Structures are given as C-alpha cells and as structure tokens.
C-alpha cells in the first residue's frame, strides 16, 4: 500500500498519528539532580598530633582495620541474619515488582474469552410475531457460541505512563539505597556494642585488680592491729574502701550482659545464645595511627541515606508529570478477533469470523478541580523531598566533623589518663611505703587507692570512647554496606 492510499483510510490514519505522537516529550518537569555546594574537605579544629589521611579511600569493610576476628565474624553473620536487613530486602523486592508493573503498562494487553448460551424467546410476546420457521420465522430457542481474543493498547501521547515508569525506577533505586542504609547502621551497631562490651570487661578487670590491692591493704591493717601497731579506725576505713570498690562490679556485670543481649538481637538470635562466647574476655584492639576521612563529595556519593533522599526526590519529580497527564485526553487502540455462530459445527468456518479494530479516547473534562489540586499536592511533595535531600547532606557533613572532633580529642584525653595512671600507681606505692615506715598516716593510702580506681576506670572508659568515636566516623563516612 502506498503512503497516499494509507493515509486515505481513516482508521489507519488515526493509528499512524497516535503512534507518531506517542514519542513526543512527556508532560511535567524533567528531573535534574540539584546542585548542592559542599566544602572541598573536612576541616574541624583537631589536636595538633591528630593524623588524618584525606587521600586514602575508606575501606568498604572498615571493621577489618580493628583486627578482631570475633567482631568480623559477628558482622558477617549480622549481614545475613539481621531482621531489619531482611525487612529492608523485602521492601526492595516489593519495589522491584512495582517497577515491573509500571513498565508493563507500556505494553498492549491481550485477553481471551468465550461464551456458550441458549436463549428461549417467549411465544406469547405481543412484540414478537409467532411465525413458524417454514414461513420465515425463527425457532423460539436459539444457541450462541462465541470465542475470541481482544487487545487494547493505551498510546502514551503525553507521557503519563513514561513518567510513572520513571518514578517507579527511582523508587526502586531509593529502596535499594534504603536497604544499604540499614546495612550501614546495623553493622556499625554490632561494632559499637561489641567495643562497648570489651570496654566494660576492661573496666571490670581494673576494678577486680583494685579490689585485690585494697584487700591486701585491709589484710595489712588487720595484721598491724593484731600486732598492736595499728588502730581500729584504719581497719574500718580500709574495709569501707574495699566495699565501695566492690559495689561497682554489679553495674558493670549487668551492662556487659545487656551489650551481649543487644548483639544477639542484631544477629537475629535469642538473648542468651552469645553469652558463653562473648563473656570470655578479650582486650580492646589497637587504635590505628591514621584516620580515614576522604573528601566530602566522595562521602556524599557513598552514603546510602543521601542516595535514597536524592532518588526519592527524582521519584516525586516524575510524579508531577503523572499527575499533570490527567489534564489531557487518553488515547488507546482496541481490537478483537473471534468466531460467533449458532451452530457448533460451523464455529471454525470463515463465515463465522468476526473482528474489530479502531482507536478510542476519553477525557476528564470536569473534575471539580481535583486534578489541579493533585498536581499542587505532588509539587509540594517534590519540594519536601528537595528539603529532605539538602537536610541529609548537612546531617552527613555534621556527622563526619563531629566524629572527627570526638575521636581527635578523645585520643588526647586517653593519652593524659594513661600518664595519670602511671603517676597514681607510683603515688600509691610511695604512700604505702611511708605509712608502713610510720612517716605518713593511713589517709594518704586510702586517697591514693581511691584515686587509682577512678583514674584507671576513666582510662578504660576513654579507650572505649576512642573506638566508639572511630566507628561512628567510619559509619558517618558511609562505609560498611559495600561488601
């Protein structure tokens, strides 16, 4: 068929026009990622001796820097067993199915059906003359056999369907980033609880060591009293000091178990399943000499919460086009092919074939302002998504700088406390020697013992804080989900 003859056929002309116009631009705004300015580097005011490596990339499995095999195994198990991660994975699968459904709307729909019916006409109806068949009438009972295929295809002239596919794709990517965000948070929580548990065990060892020292002091004062060289007040003071130090243990023991319960929950296990394994003491790992804190733009590209916020913005922008498309008419092509006959023997005869084809359209001319109100609402959702994206960026930058400051100054605190522990131990030895030689009173010994408990406990807590601030830094930098 030549082009002139083709365009003379009205139905074919309409089909050609609809097909051509379906490739036109889509209504609604075209999405472009917002241009948000970020600093060229993280620049908090840190202690002079803090070494920050801004060039080396952050390892994806940052926990391997800790060199703790138990922690590495716990994190590996959490990544596969944690219930929050499983829930996020189901959301991702749901979003993937939604993306497939949106894409399917671009394709024609085809159906098949058939009927077999028998109709009995009234012989006494005044509107149907009762003419016998031999004189041209019909039988009062007739059979009808119908079967065939029908198809419909909405021509996406104004791009409403294309915008819905665009939104579905962005929602899927946001769900994927959401799953990665849960991974980032869960794995960091495992590490934080683990390090806090080891820090509490270290503090328990400190308390138990001081209990032994104070028990020796109490025994010494009792021996002095029995030999007639001491007094009851010294014994009472030594006993009070010992009992006070012992009172710290129940709270530490409870806190250790609570951390173990939390680790088990993060691994999707019952609270007591990790008790035997984790109650065995292991020292805190050695803190790395250098910190990883690469440029902010890399951090923003890596953090899943920022990726999710940006993809949600893209989805809401596309939904403006979906809402706008309701202002315009919808065009579709329909067609059908089948067979219809009163005799089953003639069902496949060519004379029984029936078919139809043609275009259709529908247009919501008056909706009482509902369509335009929906467009306004969707535009507001897009503005909210933009603000949430910008907020996510600011939160990320704040997280990194806060973690850098916390870790830098905590290292300085730990160094000072380490020196204070050494000085306090020397002070205790000297005060005990002077007391035993009768050159000092017993109060100096008690004060030195009390200060040693306090300083050693603070030093153990500061070591724990060094690690927790470092873990929060790696979490803020967006590491942990890539593996």
What's the topology here?
Layout: H1 3-8, H2 10-21, E1 52-53, H3 69-81, H4 83-104, E2 109-120, E3 141-155, H5 160-226, H6 232-246, H7 248-266, H8 275-278, E4 291-292, H9 296-302, H10 304-324, E5 330-341, E6 353-362, H11 370-436, H12 442-476
Parallel strand pairs: 1-4
Antiparallel strand pairs: 2-3, 3-5, 5-6
Characterize the structure shown:
The model is unreliable at 1-7 (pLDDT under 50). The protein has helices at 3-8, 10-21, 69-81, 83-104, 160-226, 232-246, 248-266, 275-278, 296-302, 304-324, 370-436, 442-476, and strands spanning 52-53, 109-120, 141-155, 291-292, 330-341, 353-362. It contains twelve helices and six strands. Helix 3 (69-81) packs antiparallel against helix 5 (160-226) and helix 4 (83-104) runs antiparallel to helix 5. The protein folds into two domains: 35-106 and 161-328 and 370-476, Outer membrane efflux proteins (OEP) (Up-down Bundle); 108-120 and 139-155 and 339-362, no CATH class. With 483 residues, it is of the alpha+beta class. The strands form two sheets. It has a four-stranded antiparallel β-sheet, with helices on one face. Strands 1-4 form a two-stranded parallel ribbon. 60% of the residues lie in helices and 11% in strands.
């Amino acid at each position: 068929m030549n082009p002139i003859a083709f365009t003379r056929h009205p139905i074919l002309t309409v089909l050609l026009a609809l097909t051509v116009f379906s490739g036109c631009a889509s209504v609604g705004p075209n999405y472009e990622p917002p241009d948000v300015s970020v600093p060229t580097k993280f620049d908090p005011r840190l202690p002079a001796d803090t070494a920050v490596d801004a060039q080396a990339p952050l390892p994806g499995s940052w926990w391997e820097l800790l060199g703790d095999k138990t922690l590495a195994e716990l994190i590996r198990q959490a990544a596969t067993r944690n219930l929050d991660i499983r829930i996020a994975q189901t959301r991702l699968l749901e979003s993937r199915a939604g993306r497939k459904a949106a894409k399917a709307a671009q394709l024609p729909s085809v159906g098949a059906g058939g009927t077999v019916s028998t109709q009995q006409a009234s012989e006494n109806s005044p509107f149907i003359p009762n003419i016998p068949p031999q004189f041209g009438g019909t039988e009062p009972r007739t059979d009808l056999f119908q079967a065939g295929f029908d198809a419909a295809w909405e021509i996406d002239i104004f791009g409403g369907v294309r915008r819905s596919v665009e939104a579905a794709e962005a929602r899927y990517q946001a769900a994927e980033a959401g799953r990665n965000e849960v991974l980032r948070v869960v794995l960091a929580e495992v590490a934080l609880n683990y390090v806090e548990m080891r820090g509490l065990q270290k503090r328990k060892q400190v308390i138990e060591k001081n209990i032994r020292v104070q028990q020796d002091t109490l025994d010494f004062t009792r021996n002095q009293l029995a030999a007639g060289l001491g007094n009851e007040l010294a014994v009472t003071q030594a006993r009070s000091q010992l009992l006070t130090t012992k009172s710290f243990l129940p709270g530490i023991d409870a806190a250790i178990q609570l951390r173990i319960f939390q680790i088990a929950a993060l691994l999707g296990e019952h609270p007591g399943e990790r008790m035997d394994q984790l109650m065995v003491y292991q020292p805190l790992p050695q803190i790395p000499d250098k910190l990883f804190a690469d440029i902010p733009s890399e951090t923003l590209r890596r953090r899943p919460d920022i990726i999710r916020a940006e993809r949600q913005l893209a989805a809401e922008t596309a939904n403006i086009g979906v809402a706008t498309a309701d202002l315009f008419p919808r065009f579709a092509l329909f067609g059908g092919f089948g067979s219809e006959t009163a005799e089953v023997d003639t069902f496949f005869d060519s004379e029984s074939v029936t078919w139809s084809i043609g275009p259709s359209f529908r247009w919501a001319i008056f909706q009482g302002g509902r369509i335009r109100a929906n467009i306004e609402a969707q535009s507001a959702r897009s503005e909210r998504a933009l603000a949430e994206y910008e907020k996510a960026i600011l939160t990320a930058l704040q997280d990194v700088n806060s973690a850098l400051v916390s870790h830098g100054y905590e290292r300085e605190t730990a160094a000072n406390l380490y020196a204070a522990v050494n000085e306090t131990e020397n002070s205790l030895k000297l005060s005990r020697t002077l007391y035993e030689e009768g050159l000092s009173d017993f109060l100096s010994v008690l004060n030195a013992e009390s200060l040693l408990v306090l300083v050693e406990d603070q030093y153990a807590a500061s070591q724990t804080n060094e690690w927790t601030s470092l873990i929060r830094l790696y979490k803020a930098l967006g590491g942990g989900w890539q593996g």
